[in-house]
Structure formats: structure tokens, C-alpha cells
Amino acid sequence: MKVKLLTYTPHPIKAVFTAARSCYSASVPTQIWNEDEPKERMHSLIDKVIAAGHQSVLEHISLTFSIEGISRSCSHQLVRHRIASFSQQSQRHVRVEEGEWVVPPSIEANPSAEGIFQAALGQIYVAYRELIDLGVHPEDARYLLPNATKTNLVMTMNLRELYTVSGVRLCARAQWEIRQVFEAIREELVKVDDLRGFASHLQPICSHLGYCPEQKSCGLFPVKGSPSLSEEGEPSP
Ligand SMILES: Cc1cc2nc3c(=O)[nH]c(=O)nc-3n(C[C@H](O)[C@H](O)[C@H](O)COP(=O)(O)OP(=O)(O)OC[C@H]3O[C@@H](n4cnc5c(N)ncnc54)[C@H](O)[C@@H]3O)c2cc1C
Description:
- The chain has 237 residues and is α+β, with helices and mostly antiparallel strands.
- Helix content is 46%, strand content 13%.
- It is built from 11 helices and 4 strands.
- The longest helix has 23 residues.
- Flavin-adenine dinucleotide binds next to helix 8.
């Protein structure tokens, strides 16, 4: 898969800082915007505001990503996140070509399983082409296509939604493919000077909560209510 940050709100630190300070200042937003605050001071206030749960200030930043070569299985999980915008390659208009499918690592690592997987996909692809050759439109022939079929999409999310979604999709118990998407998104943010400070907040939800909200922990944090949590809900050392 390939994940690329295409564009984002200009001056993201300043935009979030101005939004956050406007809430607690007698100055008007244009005055705050024109103040020459160092980045570190702006980030220090932003981190405090986020820690206090006042995350709406992050909604002023919008990020647009190209996500290429993921499976339809993964894209279906992705588009469940409603506070985002998606433009996905259409199987009604674009024909799928042979080999355009994602092979899960568990299948790739097992030669017998991969043989079964590839043979089944090969048969599906042959049938798909035969239907199209018989004059069936790709929008109907696609009913044969499997979840493994590759897709490309453009996704725009505001930074608050990106924090929320990363919380569940960076969890070790999330499926490997969508977890890789959000790991790649975090790497894209790290590459940009003005976004790097926000990237550190893209973490599995347990690291914000101090406990694992799943039924079974991956080991990073104990499950809530387990004996290894203190009464305050903090993990014991
Ligand atoms: C580990 C895991 C397993 C899953 N298993 C299944 C499954 O078996 N079956 C299944 O159908 N789905 C499953 N899902 C998908 C899940 O139910 C959600 O649809 C998906 O994660 C989108 O998240 P969301 O609804 O919290 O938030 P988003 O759509 O990303 O919205 C972000 C937040 O905005 C708020 N919000 C958004 N829309 C509304 C609204 N209409 N009303 C009130 N508040 C709103 C909520 O606080 C929400 O958390 C699973 C997801 C995960 C992470």
C-alpha cells in the first residue's frame, strides 16, 4: 500500500493555537494570529488544551491523504468513520485487472494457503472477464469481485477525527491492514515540520486511557478492572 499526505490546512499550529487561545483571551482572534509566538509555546498550550479534553480546537485542521493499493476489505472498515470525506475509485467505471488483489501476510506465509487463495482469485478473475466479454457491464460483473480486490481513494479528515480513529485503528487488536494505514498516516505527519508535534498524539486509545478497553489486552496496558490496575485506574508500575 502507499499512503501520501496530499495537502493540509496552512499554518496548522497557528490555526489551532489561535482557536485555543481565543477561548481564554480578551484579544480578538486576528490579534492572536498576528502575535509572533514561538512554535514551542504554541505547542505547549495546544498540548494542555488537548490533555484537558478540549479537542474541538483540532477540528480547524484538515488533512487530505491519497491511500493506494489497499483491499476493499480495508476500505470498508475505513469508510465507517463518518466524520471524514472519501472519494473512492469506482468499480462501476474502472475494470479490475488480473493480480490487483491484496494477499494477507498470514496467507502469504503459508504456501499451501497461498496456492488455494491465488487459484480461487484466478478463477474469479477469469469469470469476471468472461462476463464482461459477454457484454455484461463492469458495474454488474463486479458482483463477483472479492474483498481482496485493491482500491484507491482520497480521504480528508480533520485532526480531531484523526486522533479518534487512530485510537481504535492503531490498537494492536485492530486488523493489520487498517493498522498499517494509520501507521503510514502517522509517518506522513512526522515528515512535515508543522505537523510533527501533532503526530505524537496519534496513539492507540489505551495510551490515552491508561488501561486497555478491550476484553483481552495485547500487554501494553492491563484491561480495566484487572488486578494490575490501581484504584485510580492507573497501571501499577
Ligand atoms: C475493533 C473494531 C471492531 C469492529 N467490529 C465491528 C463489527 O463487528 N460490526 C460493525 O458493524 N462494525 C464494527 N466496527 C466498526 C465500528 O462499529 C464503527 O462503525 C467504526 O469504528 C466507526 O467508528 P465510530 O462510529 O466511533 O466513529 P466515527 O464515525 O469515526 O465518528 C467519530 C466519533 O464521532 C461521534 N459520532 C459520529 N457519528 C455519530 C452519530 N451519528 N451519533 C453520535 N455520535 C456520533 C462518536 O463519538 C464517534 O466515536 C468495529 C470497529 C473496531 C475498531
